[in-house]
Amino acid sequence: MTPKLFTTLKTYTKDQFRADVFAGITVALVALPLSIAIAIASGAGPAEGIVTAIIAGFLISALGGSRVQIGGPTGAFIVVVAGVVATYGYDGLVTATFMAGIILLVAGAFHAGGLVRHVPEAVINGFTIGIAVIIATSQIPDLLGLSGAMPADFIEKIPAIWRALPAMTPAAFAIGLATMVLIVLFRRAAPRLPGLIVAVAITSAVVAIFDLPVATIQTRFGDLPRSLPMPQLPDLSFDRIRELLSSAVIIAFLAGVESLLSAMVADRMISGKHRSNAELLAQGVANLGSSLFGGLPATGAIARTATNVRAGGKTPVAGIIHALTILAILMLVAPLAGFLAMPALSGLLLLTAWNMSEPHRWGSYLRAARSDQVLLVITLLLTVLTDLTLAIGVGIALGLAMKLRRRGDKQADTDEDWTPRDR
């Protein structure tokens, strides 16, 4: 369970360092607007997203089991975090994140890293698409410049958005749409460059220069801090732990699964092999660290990890550079982040939700076994219409039941084949 950083530094070269510095800065410029947007969508403030990217991003790279994994707040947590904040307050989320860190440490110590292979792929796919649907619908009000609170429930939110459409702000919609178009263009024309921050910066500059009636981070949340907060322990009273235990388990499950899936994707990209248990331990330490600084839950981020690889990142040093770059931005130019337009961040998250759903794989879902299709749809619907705990629990239970049934059918066929027929 030795961290990859310790082994890669034994043969570290100047060329690798130069590549890691360029990749780390590139990923930081991508991670900054994403972390802010994810935090806001989760019901937190932009500062909490930045703190999470710095603290958790540093710890995941320094202690993790992957050469190129980049950690921080991710879209998969938006629904969970928003639900915990709405029910227990932000201090409840901090406590749940701290507890999740402990759970992940225990999982890593007991070598549970290989268990992710037993989670049915159809459950992960349905769960991911369901989260993408929820994220996308949650961003429509800001994209359209709609004012006022919206219902949290998906079924209630859709008609509420429809009724509010006459009050939409055309300038906000134009900024959000332009941001999405620019992001797509930058990805195609210069995939190795941080097109996310450039696109959001351009459209936000248009808002500032022409004084458009569009909400920004500064108008909604005030000025951002220019330093990290002082660490402090969350509320760990018995009653608090008991009421937040189920939320902590869900956060730990999501952090473990997404980080290991991201590490496996990274392995394919670099022809490497990650250390799953070291990765779980790093996720545990990262979530403990993030909670101590008042941050959000964190995990390995597939999109940022892929950006790191495409930008030439070679070792965990790139992830450390990424965290230090975001810290430097916070300390030196934090006021500029206040000009970022809310519709631009919403457009960014809409594209993130689209990419989360992996539309290039939809065709393979339609060609999959009928049982896998049913499992995917059930998990998706439960994720969108009920809550994540029920969706994950039912999905895994049904998946295991289907797996046992298929094993039973195969065993029955084998027994029949080998039964003597001439007695």
* Mean residue pLDDT: 90
Q: Count of helical segments?
A: 17
Strand content bin: under 5%
Helix content: over 70%
What's the β-strand tally? 2
Instruction: Please provide the ordered H/E string of secondary-structure elements.
Output: HHHEHHHHHHHHEHHHHHH
Domain module tally = 1
* Lateral arrangement of strands in the main beta sheet: 1-2
Provide structural commentary.
- This protein has 423 residues and is mostly helical.
- It has one domain (4-360).
- It is 72% helix and 1% strand.
- It contains 17 helices and two strands.
- It has a two-stranded antiparallel ribbon.
- Helix 2 runs antiparallel to helix 12 and helix 3 packs antiparallel against helix 11.
Q: What are its keywords?
A:
423 residues, mainly alpha, two-stranded antiparallel ribbon, 17 helices, 1% strand
